[in-house]
Amino acid sequence: MRFSDEELMVMFAAGTTDAFTMLYERYRHRVFRFAVACLGSPADAEDAVQDVFLRVAGAADKYQPADRFRSWLFQISANRIRDIGRNRKRWDMRNHSSKPLPDPGDRGRFEQRLVACDTLQRLLAGLQPEDKILVLLKELEGLDGLSIAGIMGLTPEAVRVRLHRIRAVLKSAGAVNDQEVSKSTEEGR
Amino acid sequence: MNRNLNECRYLESFLAGKLNSVEHESFMSHLSICAECWTQAESARTLRMALEPFSELAMPDDADLRIRIALDHQLRTPLADREVMDIEETAAFLGITVPELVNCLDNVPAFEVAGRIRFNRERLIRWMELKERGLFREISHDRSLMKSNILTFPGGLSDEQHDEKANSGSF
After folding, report:
1. CB contact (8 A) between residue B59 and residue A123
2. What ipTM is given for this predicted complex?
């Protein structure tokens, strides 16, 4: 029998820790992907995943079964990603380098795969952090406007208008990226 | 013109793949004449292509293990036994809200690690004890002012009168 997310959360709040493990296994990669896409750093994304699930565990008694677990989880994720983004900015201002990745083995291969995601980071570079979160909830996580509105504290209409504006910004960024790619290709010839 | 604007309303449904075949075909015709919708659709397509590598991206095993250990520790260790707390746990520990704690962070013993604020339970307890002593000093100071009749309210009791009344069981 497969329990719904909401059922598992209620079971966890009642003391069944295995229910929490199942939720973690269902969502760890999704939260990780969302965090990598938002933050552009796997090390920061790992921290985010840990914090998000620690907070979910700590806030189980505050969870309302009427709320969709996924929206609640991504609301916590978005909050944590904002915090990490702010902290990182503060650390960058103090001239600290970003956290090095420890293991050159698997980590190296993992990083190589992430290089393929540079396009995304260039594309999203012109967006405000809030817009980045919003558009990734939509396009990466596939949430509908109503859920995004709940997560971001906006009205559904405001979400629609902001998505419209974000896409206009992304279109310009995409055009610049295309030009850069074709220029570097021509220079390489 | 009106028809064109009406068609624009179907953009989100088109992007979400929720149009049936007839509606889809109709919207494709609309895209060829509406620059605004074309830009929106093209932008969404570019972003989705850039997001494709993420669909198979999984968290590394070593990170997964580290997080499982941390979660296991949290699930097994009640809040009362935790020595290092984050801001939410500390706010709950002090019986105040997170924004209230943030507002008085300069006065609360805390430390920063990996760009995050953490609180040592033992130091918090020591700090609270010091605060209590400070508060007692303030109360004592107020009482001494009351004794010198500077703060004696009309009809009120002095400390001596209060103590006498308490000892005689009049309260």
Report:
1. no
2. 0.76
